[in-house]
Amino acid sequence: MMKVAVICEFSGIVRDSFIKQGHQAVSFDLLKSEKPGPHVVGDVQQLGKEYFKKFDLAICHPPCTHLAVSGARWFKDKQEEQAEALEFVQWLMDLDVERIALENPISVISSKIRKPDQIIQPWQFGHGETKATCLWLKNLPLLEPTNIVDGRESRIHRMPPGENRWKERSRTFLGIAEAMASQWNLQ
């Protein structure tokens, strides 16, 4: 059994996938969890790096608002916000945890910190959609596709504007979460 920290996750999808595999998993976010389960509300940086030493695996989903290249046209107006976002990404990557996965869409992390180890798509894990998802990995194997399906709908990209659009776009697909929990089940 591993102790798993799922950082910047309000949905509980990844956390619950690891719990189903028999691990102790807890999610952390500024928002309350949408699903009941072990969850800490607050700023993870205030907990300090020392706090996370007790975990065997950290899966990190830093906010992509100021990082994703889909918003590149606004980068010139968000230089300070982007610098802060990149500092947070580096803070997560530098946690003293044996295994780390950091997930984000195609973003400036690739040019400002380092290239991702892997780029996956939801259609490789049972969801007929496209949404390129980069993974930066430390001591973890690449994810192997589990259920390649037809359909290459760009639903996430085409979501209409709205109050909760960012929330819907940030959710991890269940098939990807289940693949992480089963394939990164390293004791």
TrEMBL record:
InterPro entries: SAM-dependent_MTases_sf (IPR029063). It comes from the Bacteria. This is DNA cytosine methyltransferase. It comes from Enterococcus devriesei.
